[in-house]
C-alpha cells in the first residue's frame, strides 16, 4: 500500500494532498494495522515476553493433548510452533531491515509533511491551528497515523537499531538544517519553495516524538546537537531579515522540540533565554500566537524539570509576566489562555521555592489583570478562575507576610462570592481552590483585622451543605483562632459553636483528627471560655456520650483514636474549670439488653486511667499523656474547691501512681511535647499551603500552653506533699498502703535523684 502510494505520486511532493482520497483512507487503516501489530505483545519475537506463549503455558492440556485458548472468535487450538511461525512471518519475513527503513522514511518524508490545508488553517488562525494539532488522532488524520506508525516502529525491539540510526543520520546533516533555517529567515532563496523547510519540520517532529530512543543511540549526543545545530538554526531564524508574511514553520517546530528535549539537555540556560525572548516577542516579527504558545509550553516543561534556573529569569520576571498576559489577551480559547496563566503560577512557585521575594512592580504586574479576567471567566470559561486563584496564592507567598495585605481588597471579595451559596455564578468545582487560597492568606496574615470577620461565616455555610471540605475548613477555623484570639472569639462565638455542632460526632476518624486541631487551638488558649462554648452548644455532651458508649463496650461507639481526642479536649476544659461538668454528669443510656447504664465522674476518671497505657508512643501521644496526667494530679486534694472526682481518684491511687512512675521514669522532667499534629494519611494529600508561617504561629502559642509551662514532677511532688496535710497522716498512709511498695520506692528514688 505504501509503495503504491509513492509510485502513484512520484517523488515526495512539496506538501501532502489536502483531502483524503479513498486510497488514503485505506492507507490509514493499513498504518493503524501495522502499528497495532508492532505494538502487540503477542507478536514479540522474545519468547519470555510473548504473551501468546505465556497464555498457552497457562492453559491446561485437553484430553486429546490440544491447548485451547479463548480468542475474540471463540476457542482455538494453538501451539508453540504456530506462534513461532507467526512471529517469523511478522518480524523476519515482513518487517525486514529494508522494509523497516522504507516505512520509517516514507512516514517521515511524505505522510508527516504539513499539508496545504493545515498550512492554510495555520495562516488563518494560529491559535485554532495549535488546538487542532493537539487534538489530532489516528482515527481521522493521515499524518497522525504516520506518526503513530513511526513511533511504534522506532520503539520496537527490532526497529530501534535500524530506524533510530536512520533519524540520527538525518539530524547529522547540519548544512541542510541551516539552509532550511536561512530560507525561513529570508537569508537565502529556495528554488524548490519551502519544500526543505517542510521536510525538516517533519524530521524534527519525528525526532521529538522519539527523543528517548534517540538519546540511547550510539554516536548521538543530544547536548552537542542542541548546541551545534538547534540553537544556531533557531538563532538564524529569530535574527533573520524576513519581514514578509511567512509562516514560522521551523520556528514553531524548533520551539516544540525544546519542549520535547527539556528533560535531557544540560544547557537549559540557553534554552530558557531563547524561550523568554520569544514570549517577550523579541524580535516581534513572525512570533505569532502559535510560536508563542509553543514557547510557553516549552518554558513550562523546562521549569517542571529544572529547579535551579531562578537566576536566569528572576530579573526579567515582570517583563515575562506582562508578556504572558498579553498572550492571554491574544487568545480566545480557554485551554490556550489557561496555558499562559499556569506558566505565571509556575514562575511564582520557583520564586517562592528559592526563598526570594518579588518587588512591588512585579507583584502588581501579576495581580493587576486578574480582576478583569475573573469577571469575564464565566460559563464555559469558569475554570480560568482556578488559574486566577493559583496566581493570587503564588503572589501572596512571593510578596511575604508584610506585604500580603495589599491583596485583600482584590482577593477577599472573590473568596466571599465564590463560597456564597446564593451567588448565581458560583462553581462548586472551584471551592477547593478558593479554600486553599483562603487558608494561604490567613496563615500569611500578621494581624487580625476587620475584613477577615465577614468571611468566617462561609465555613458554616459550606458545612451545612456537606462535609466534603471538612479538612481544610477545620484548618481555616484553627487559623482564625490562632490569628484572632479573643477578638475572633467575641465576634464569632455562636458561629464557631454552630460549626462544631455540625462536625463533632458526624465524621470519620480522619475528620475527627482535623476537628481536634480546632479543639486544641481553642482550649489551649481559652480553656475556660472554650469549655463553656462546648458545653452550652451540646458538643461536650456529644463527646461524653461517645466516651460512655466506648466505656460500656457498645458496638455503636466511635473508634478509640477518636475517644482519645475527645478525652484530651475534656481534659483541657477541666484543667480550666474542674466544675464544668458537675451539672452534666452522670450521663445515662440504655444497653442492648434494656439495662440503664450510668457514666459519671468515676467512670470518666477510670477511663483516663485504663486508656492511658494504650496511647500511642508518638508526639501526639506524649501530649495526650501529659495533659491527662496533669488533669488527674490537679483533681487530687488539696484543690481550691471540692471536686466530684477527688474521691474516685483516691480510690484508684495505686493505678495513678503507676502511671506517674511510667511517665517520670521515661520522660525527662524538662521535656515538653510538640503541638498536636494530624500527621499524614497515605490516602490523602498533605496541605503545605503557608506551612512555615503556620508553624511559626503555632510555636508561639505552644510556648504558652500548660504542657510547656507545667512540670509533671513538680506537680506530683506538690500534690503528694499537700495530700498528707489535707487528709491527715492516717488516711494518707492507708491510701499509700494500697500501692505496690516497689512503685513507691522507685518514685522516691526518681524524685531524690532529680533533687
User: In one word, what is the shape?
Assistant: elongated
Main sheet: strand order: 1-2
The helix tally amounts to 41
Strand content: under 5%
Backbone CA Rg: 36 Å
Biggest sheet character: 2 strands, antiparallel
Mean pLDDT: 88
How many strands in all?
4
Q: Which structural class do you get from the secondary structure elements?
A: mainly alpha
Structure in words:
This protein has 755 residues and is mostly helical. It is built from 41 helices and 4 strands. Strands 1-2 form a two-stranded antiparallel ribbon. Strands 3-4 form a two-stranded antiparallel ribbon. 38% of the residues are buried.
Helices and strands in order, then pairings?
Blueprint: H1 2-9, H2 22-39, H3 51-58, E1 68-71, E2 74-77, H4 80-94, H5 97-111, H6 116-124, H7 126-135, H8 142-155, H9 160-171, H10 174-185, H11 195-209, H12 211-214, H13 222-238, H14 249-261, H15 268-279, H16 289-305, H17 310-313, H18 317-330, H19 334-353, H20 360-367, H21 370-376, H22 384-399, H23 408-419, H24 431-444, H25 450-453, H26 457-465, H27 470-491, H28 493-503, H29 509-525, H30 527-536, H31 539-551, H32 560-576, E3 587-590, E4 596-599, H33 601-612, H34 619-634, H35 646-651, H36 653-666, H37 691-703, H38 706-709, H39 712-727, H40 729-736, H41 741-754
Antiparallel strand pairs: 1-2, 3-4
Helix pairs in contact: 2-8, 5-8, 6-7, 9-11, 10-13, 11-14, 13-14, 14-16, 15-16, 16-19, 18-19, 18-20, 19-22, 20-22, 22-24, 23-24, 24-27, 26-28, 27-28, 27-29, 29-30, 29-32, 30-32, 31-32, 32-34, 34-36, 34-39, 36-41, 39-40
Amino acid at each position: 500500500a505504501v509503495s503504491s502510494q509513492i509510485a502513484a505520486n512520484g517523488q515526495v511532493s512539496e506538501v501532502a494532498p489536502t483531502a483524503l482520497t479513498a486510497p488514503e483512507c485505506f492507507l490509514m487503516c493499513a498504518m493503524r494495522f501495522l502499528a497495532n501489530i508492532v505494538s502487540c505483545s503477542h507478536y514479540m519475537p522474545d519468547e519470555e515476553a510473548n504473551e501468546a506463549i505465556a497464555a498457552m503455558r497457562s492453559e491446561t492440556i485437553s484430553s486429546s493433548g490440544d491447548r485451547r485458548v479463548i480468542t475474540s472468535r471463540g476457542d482455538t487450538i494453538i501451539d508453540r510452533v504456530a506462534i513461532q511461525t507467526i512471529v517469523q512471518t511478522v518480524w523476519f519475513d515482513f518487517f525486514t531491515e529494508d522494509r523497516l527503513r522504507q516505512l520509517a522514511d516514507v512516514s517521515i518524508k511524505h505522510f508527516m509533511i504539513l499539508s496545504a490545508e493545515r498550512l492554510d488553517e495555520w495562516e488563518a488562525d494560529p491559535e485554532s491551528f495549535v488546538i487542532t494539532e493537539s487534538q489530532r488522532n489516528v482515527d481521522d488524520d493521515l499524518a497522525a497515523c504516520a506518526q503513530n506508525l513511526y513511533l511504534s516502529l522506532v520503539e520496537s525491539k527490532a526497529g530501534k537499531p535500524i530506524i533510530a540510526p536512520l533519524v540520527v543520520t538525518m539530524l547529522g546533516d547540519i548544512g541542510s538544517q541551516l539552509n532550511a533555517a536561512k530560507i525561513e529567515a529570508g537569508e537565502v532563496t529556495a528554488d524548490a519553495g519551502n519544500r526543505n523547510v517542510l521536510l525538516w519540520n517533519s524530521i524534527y517532529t519525528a525526532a521529538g516524538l522519539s527523543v528517548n530512543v534517540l538519546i540511547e543511540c550510539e554516536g548521538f549526543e543530544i547536548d552537542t546537537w542542541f548546541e551545534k545545530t538547534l540553537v544556531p538554526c533557531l538563532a538564524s531564524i529569530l535574527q533573520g531579515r524576513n519581514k514578509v508574511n511567512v509562516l514560522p514553520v521551523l520556528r514553531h517546530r524548533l520551539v516544540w522540540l525544546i519542549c520535547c528535549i527539556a528533560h535531557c539537555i544540560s544547557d537549559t540556560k540557553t534554552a530558557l533565554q531563547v524561550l523568554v525572548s520569544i514570549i517577550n516577542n523579541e524580535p516581534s516579527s513572525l512570533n505569532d500566537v502559535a510560536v508563542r504558545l509553543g514557547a510557553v509550553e516549552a518554558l513550562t516543561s523546562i521549569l517542571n524539570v529544572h529547579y535551579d534556573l531562578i537566576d536566569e529569569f528572576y530579573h526579567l520576571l515582570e517583563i515575562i509576566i506582562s508578556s504572558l498576559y498579553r498572550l492571554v489577551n491574544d487568545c480566545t480559547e480557554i485551554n490556550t489562555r489557561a496555558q499562559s496563566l499556569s506558566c505565571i503560577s509556575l514562575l511564582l512557585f520557583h520564586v517562592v521555592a528559592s526563598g526570594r521575594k518579588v518587588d512591588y512592580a512585579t507583584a502588581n504586574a501579576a495581580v493587576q489583570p486578574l480582576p478583569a479576567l475573573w469577571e469575564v471567566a464565566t460559563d464555559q470559561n469558569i475554570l480560568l478562575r482556578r488559574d486566577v486563584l493559583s496566581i493570587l496564592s503564588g503572589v501572596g507567598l512571593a510578596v511575604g507576610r508584610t506585604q500580603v495585605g495589599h491583596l485583600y481588597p482584590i482577593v477577599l471579595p472573590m473568596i466571599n462570592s465564590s463560597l456564597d451559596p446564593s451567588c448565581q455564578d458560583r462553581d462548586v468545582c472551584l471551592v477547593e481552590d478558593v479554600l486553599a487560597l483562603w487558608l494561604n492568606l490567613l496563615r500569611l496574615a500578621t494581624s487580625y483585622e476587620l475584613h477577615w470577620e465577614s468571611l468566617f461565616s462561609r465555613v458554616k455555610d459550606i458545612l451545612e451543605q456537606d462535609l466534603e471540605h471538612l479538612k481544610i475548613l477545620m484548618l481555616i477555623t484553627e487559623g482564625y483562632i490562632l490569628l484572632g484570639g479573643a477578638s475572633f472569639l467575641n465576634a464569632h462565638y455562636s458561629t464557631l459553636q454552630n460549626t462544631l455542632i455540625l462536625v463533632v460526632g458526624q465524621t470519620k476518624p480522619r475528620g475527627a483528627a482535623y476537628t481536634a486541631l480546632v479543639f486544641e487551638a481553642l482550649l489551649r488558649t481559652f480553656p475556660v471560655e472554650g469549655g463553656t462554648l462546648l458545653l452550652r452548644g451540646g458538643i461536650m455532651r456529644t463527646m461524653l456520650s461517645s466516651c460512655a458508649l466506648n466505656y460500656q463496650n457498645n458496638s455503636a461507639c466511635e473508634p478509640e483514636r477518636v475517644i482519645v481526642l475527645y478525652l484530651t479536649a475534656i481534659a483541657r476544659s477541666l484543667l480550666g474549670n474542674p466544675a464544668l461538668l458537675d451539672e452534666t454528669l452522670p450521663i445515662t443510656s440504655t444497653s442492648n439488653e434494656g439495662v440503664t447504664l450510668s457514666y459519671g465522674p468515676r467512670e470518666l476518671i477510670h477511663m483516663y486511667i485504663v486508656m492511658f497505657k494504650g496511647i500511642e508512643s508518638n508526639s501526639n501521644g506524649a501530649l495526650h499523656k501529659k495533659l491527662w496526667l496533669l488533669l488527674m494530679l490537679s483533681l487530687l486534694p488539696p484543690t481550691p474547691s471540692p471536686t466530684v472526682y477527688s474521691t474516685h481518684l483516691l480510690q484508684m491511687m495505686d493505678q495513678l501512681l503507676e502511671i506517674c512512675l511510667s511517665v517520670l521514669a521515661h520522660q525527662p522532667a524538662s521535656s515538653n511535647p510538640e503541638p498536636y499534629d494530624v500527621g499524614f494519611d497515605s490516602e490523602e494529600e498533605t496541605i503545605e499551603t503557608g506551612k512555615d508561617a503556620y508553624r511559626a504561629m503555632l510555636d508561639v502559642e505552644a510556648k504558652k500552653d500548660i504542657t510547656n509551662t507545667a512540670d509533671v514532677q513538680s506537680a506530683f511532688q506538690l500534690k503528694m506533699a499537700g495530700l498528707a496535710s489535707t487528709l491527715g497522716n492516717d488516711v494518707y498512709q492507708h491510701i499509700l498502703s494500697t500501692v505496690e511498695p516497689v512503685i513507691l520506692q522507685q518514685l522516691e528514688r526518681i524524685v531524690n535523684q532529680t533533687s
